[in-house]
Predict the 3D structure of the following.
Amino acid sequence: MKTAAAYIRVSTEDQIEFSPASQLEKIRDYAKRNDYILPDEFVFMDEGISGRNTAKRPEFNRMIGVAKQKPKPFDAILLWKFSRFARNREDSIVYKSMLRKQCGIDVISISENIGDDKMSVLIEAMIEAMDEYYSINLAEEVRRGMAEKASRGQAVSIPSYGYLIRDGKYYPDPDTAPIVRQMFDDYLSGVGLVTIARRLNDAGHRTRRGNLFENRTVRYILSNPVYIGYIRFTADGKTDYRALNTGTMIKAEHEPIIDRTIFDAVQKKLLQSARTPYRREKSAAQPFMLQGLCRCSACGATLVQSASKTSLQCYSYARGTCKLSHSISLKKINDMVISSLATIVKDESAKINLSPKPIKQHDNDIPAQIAKEEKKLKRIREGYESEVYTLDEFKQARSAILEKIKQLRSEQCIVITNPEIERSRIRGRIALMLPSICSPALPEEDKNSLLKSVIDRIIFYRPTGSIDIFFYSS
């Protein structure tokens, strides 16, 4: 008896034939007829999502992650049709090849019986090519329809912040339109993008999609011509909020909520800001010893370099979503970390925080093998309850699995690391690397690699000016 997973996807709510319930029902029926057990935890479902690529399919990506586990959790992935897996041949080839060659997992379409001989390879490729053609053609038709609506000055997406949509047209939203006007006024008065975002978040305002405002969100709103009665449309549906003149500007019929003179003045200021030497310097990242290790105590975000490269700041605060500044000079926090490490080496009573380090499971990992056998035991019980197994078949399979578990447990040797021994090990590693960390001759990248081999994270507490270092434990 083999174990299977099911992947189900629908891209629109009106696809009744391919509804999630319909696909799952047919897949379960196939599994029962072909001696597969299909546990509920191995049913992966993406609803209302395109199959053109895998980037925005969370359940698909979770399924691939589960499939990579050792030992393999299931033997096959069952689909209603190959088009449910992917409508992009490149994605399809990459993932199917990886699943079959690296994981030993087959991808099976239950409604497209292509066989398993050499001709099946050609037939499967033809089916996938037809699916990709359908998807590309459908996307072109949708873009053509959107372009036609835009040419008439009608809305082609969700309403921009500050507007509502009725009968395909924009109408000022009495609740959010005044907020948009205030954003334009504040920016012309010299208030920065981050400060505007922070003020909006502190007042409890959220974006159209319910997210916190960021500096880039504010910039996009300030550069959107919808507020002066225009619709900006691009053929691919994408707009670079930093490039103020992208797309086609089409005069619409809706009521503007920003005066054209104010809008033009804001665009001029945004353009000047984008061209400053300050921004060019900011884009040139430089490695530093604590890169990727320091965290904000308020929100948990990483501390990143400032534009001057001499200090760190909370990534979320720099974009307006964290309320507490965690600015600190690089020299100061470097000295704090080195001082803490030196204290740990000299004082055996110094505090050492342990953080479990993820351990990759291998085929010879006995606990993982036991867990797999226990899952098998659960599944054959489910198979018996679903009348897939007879009572004799169930007893025979159960006996074999229990014997396997007994054998594995007899081979298992569990070693529990003493925390004090672990702290002693860490203290020894720090003592060995500390001279290199303090040496000005060692490049910052190498110092960073050394620290990351033993340190999980460093929490910086801005109100007290203190740090907590968490070390990996084996």
